[in-house]
Amino acid sequence: MKIEDILSQERRARMAAERLLAQKQAELSDANRMLSQHALSLSDEITETREVVKEIKGENSQVRADLEKANKEVVIAKRRLWDSLETIEDGFAVFDQTDRMIAANSAYLKPFDGLGCVAPGIQYVDILNIVIEEGIVDIGDLRPLAWRDTMLDRWYAPRRDPLNLRLWDGTHIQLVDRRSRDGDMVCLGLNITETVTYQTELKEARIRAEAANRAKSAFLANMSHEIRTPMNGVVSMAELMAEGDLDEEQRLYVDTIRKSGEALLTIINDVLDYSKIEAAKLTLHPEPFDLEKTILDVITILQPTVQEKGIQLSIDFDLFMPSGFMGDPIRLRQILTNLIGNAVKFTSEGHVLVRAIGIPGVKNEDYRVLISVEDSGIGIPKQMQAHIFGEFNQVEDEQNRRYEGTGLGLSIARQLVELMDGEIWLESKEGVGSCFGFNIALPALEQVVEPALPDNPGKAILALSDGLNKSILERRLKALGFVVETTTGTAELLKKCADAKVVFVDEALCAIGSPDEDPLRALRSAHPDIELILLTPPQKREADCSCVAIASHILHTPVLRNILFETLSSLNSYAQTTEDMEADAHPPQFEEPLTPNQNRLMRILAAEDNKTNRLVFSKLVKSLNIDLRFANNGLEAVEAFLDFKPDLIFMDISMPEVDGKEATRRIRLLEQDQGLPRTRIVALTAHAMPGDAEEILSHGLDKHLTKPLRKSAIFEEILRNCPQEAISPQDEV
Ligand code: ADP
User: Which residue of 32, 65, 395, 528 is surrounded by the most CB atoms within 10 Å?
Assistant: First the structure.
């Protein structure tokens, strides 16, 4: 190769190397530039990181300080919690899910005093084993293993009721154990020793109080017997004396004796009833009864006082409400006597109005009966009204005790109404009057049957002096469609009768004038077709009414709605209508004619050991045509039963030797042995305590009458039970 070629080759190589160098230098400077940029950002980052590290360092020390503080607080809280748990006298422990004790306070561990093994870490079942081995708990009649199983069953049950345990030293503990959400069992052992001791003391005190109450009731029963027996003599004898010939002064004395005796008996009854209710021993005895008659009976008894005071007592009995109900008539009568009696007592002028309304229930026979007693008396101040149904509450004025009373009546009435599933209330304005009302639930026995009368039955005349009977009759007759006129004078009566269909007359009118100028006879001869209905007082016998022959009917006052309806339906004037109406409903029925062999007197045996009571009894039935024999004790009664063969026996209960209950048992046995028919035996007692009647009847007696004996009750028994073959006791003696 030529030298120039070599040189140009070298030049070209040098130039290429120079170009490469320049390129590399440029790359190097780029790299340097990037390096310095990277170094710059690195140093920035380092600065930032340094700052962050600095910050974190600060935070860390804060966290450490907080942690230290929190730790301290936890320690304090834990110490406080344990101090508290240690301070309470009740036991506290916690078990984990595997039934291992985690913690327990000293009270929990106390029963295991000295047993170091009972400490955190122990299993629940081991605690139970130790309890059995050491006899720590009184396990009663259970065998130890059975007791442990019961405790374990309880421990694993989904729900645990608190359990009371008695420890060996007499301490009573109540275990309350509850499982927490994470499965731990939190246990409390409450020391209930004081509560149990208190409860035991209370129980003993209650037993003592109940015993004292029973003793008081027994004392009251005895007292009632002791007081009622002589009172029987006093009241009955006074009643008999009043029937005889007395001058005015003597009658006053006798009436006072009778009234005082009856007042005393009312007080005794109030006190007895109150004590019965107080001892929750008063029960109701439902039986079929006539509500209207019950109200009228109460009103009749109060009539003499009403007349004496010159006030008006009236009754408004819902025409569309039945009067036959199922209930306790004696207790209802007691409520009515109290409310109506109070109304009369606290009213000196104006009126007392008794209203009875029936609201049929869902089933038609269930009635809610609402009775209100309204008066125009002294009224009750507002501030007293809320307390008036409490016991011993009386509104006293400055004259204090102007009115007699025990202050128990309304409290008894309230409690009786509540027993009858009802409510009692009061509205009153001082100086204007009061209205006491109550409602009770009563099932009706039958629905009202109205008399079969034509649409316009005609004119009815009321010649009645008694305002109450007049107003009751007037309202009823008007409701039945009658045109009603009232009259008092006899001349006016004769005139008004010209176009009347029915005349209601007081029996007292018979007594006016001689037979020739008797207004009723005159009326009968002037109007032979008129229906003449005679109203007589309850106790008067038909045979004793001088004008019985000229009357179409004789009714006792107050006239019950059913009786009035029946009487009106049977009057000749309406007979056609009634027959027509009834013929469709009922085919005619023929009754067997009665041909009794009436040739002997009704035989009545009265067993009574007390001479006064025997005398009272014989006087009470003196007007009856009966064959009466007495037995002085139970033994004589049994003998007389065999040889006298009584139709009816009145049996005193408390008699020496053989008492009335035993005598009845013996008579019932004789009847069984000898195949004799059952003779009705009526108990006569002075007992009036709860359960007495039931107890007496359980010995085979049929009825229970309390003393003092009431003529009407004795008469009712005798007349009802007279056998067909005997002469009626009311026939002429
Ligand atoms: P008491 O035997 O005293 O009549 P009650 O419990 O029957 O006892 O009545 C309590 C009191 O309520 C009566 O003493 C009387 O002050 C008042 N009271 C009751 N009924 C009436 C009434 N109709 N008018 C005014 N005050 C009455």
Answer: 395
pLDDT in tens, 203-239: 999 999 888 877 776 677 667 667 777 887 888 888 8
What pTM, to 2 d.p., does this model score? 0.48
Residue 239 CA to ligand 1 center (angstroms) comes to 29
In this structure, are strands 287-290 and 185-191 parallel, antiparallel, or unpaired? Answer: unpaired
Q: Identify which of 339, 342, 387 to mutate to test ligand 1's pocket (most ligand atoms within 8 A of the CB).
A: 342
Query: Contact, 445 vs 288, CB < 8 A?
Result: yes
* Ligand 1 atom with minimal separation from the 378 CA: 25
Task: Tell me which residue of 346, 331, 347, 328 sits closest to 414, measured CA to CA.
Answer: 331
Tokens for 300, please give them.
Answer: 């009749």
Atom 2, ligand 1: which residue's CA is nearest? 405
Q: How far is the CA of 373 from the centre of ligand 1 (A)?
A: 13
The model's pLDDT over 371-414, given as tens digits with 9 standing for 90+, comes to 999 999 999 999 888 888 876 566 664 444 556 666 778 988 99
Contact 620, 711 (CB under 8 A): yes
Q: What are phi and psi for residue 619, nearest 5 degrees?
A: -70, -40
Spatial contact of 676 and 644, defined as CB atoms under 8 Å apart: no
Ligand 1 touching residue 434 (CB < 6 A): yes
User: Residue 331: CB partners within 8 Å, gap ≥ 6?
Assistant: 284, 416, 419, 420
